[in-house]
Amino acid sequence: MDHPSVEPDEIWILNVEGLEMTADEVIKELQDLTWPPGQPFPLMSNIGARQGIMNWGASSSFSEFLLEMGAGGLGGLEAAGLGAAIRYTYGKFRARSQGDPWEDSISEDVALAQAKARIVEYYSVAEDDLSVQRSETDGVDEIFKFTFIHLDGRTFGAEVGVIRQSPTCMRLWRAAPST
């Protein structure tokens, strides 16, 4: 079942292993991004974190951070500036934990499956109701970018990269149908 009234407009997902910062330090940096200078209140957002230790052949620690954003009150330039700041900050965190080169790690089909799975998970839509509208491989930013159209006219997007040879969805977004 779809829940458009309670869904975030954009979700930034950061999965890292062995980050050289504490979770509290990462959360503080993310919180700073959501509070524009000179504003009395932060932007509509939700920050979440999950940490663990994995012992599966070899031991490693992992963390997942979510920054869910609502578009409430942001103009085009403000939204673009915030997006650039988040992309820079997430890139900095990923660079501190990233393992092997990404280019040969996964196929576009695997990245597409990861993108659809995350959209279904976070936006509660049926996978069969999503049709690929656009697919792009960005070698500079080392990500696959996908745009989907839903049966109800909403547009969804996902950016999938690779961290430690594993497909990782880094950003999701949605937009209302064009009128």
Structure description:
- With 179 residues, the chain is an alpha+beta fold.
- Helices cover 26% and strands 38% of the residues.
- It has 3 helices and 7 strands; from the N terminus they run E-H-E-E-H-H-E-E-E-E.
- The protein has helices spanning 23-33, 76-95, 108-123, and strands at 10-17, 45-56, 58-69, 130-138, 143-150, 155-163, 166-175.
- Strands 2-3-1-7-6-5-4 form a 7-stranded antiparallel β-sheet, with helices on both faces.
- Strand 5 and strand 6 form a beta hairpin.
- Helix 1 runs antiparallel to helix 2.
- The radius of gyration is 16 Å and the shape is globular.
- The two termini are 23 Å apart.
- Mean pLDDT is 78; it is low at 1-5.
User: What's the Cα radius of gyration?
Assistant: 16 Å
How many DSSP-defined strands?
7
Discrete helix count: 3
**Strand order within the widest sheet?**
2-3-1-7-6-5-4
Fraction in beta strands: 35-45%
Distance between the termini: 23 Å
- How would a textbook summarize the main sheet? 7 strands, antiparallel
Low-confidence stretches: 1-5
Order of helices and strands: EHEEHHEEEE
Helix content: 25-40%
- Structural class by secondary-structure content: alpha+beta
- Overall 3D shape: globular
- Give the rounded overall mean pLDDT: 78
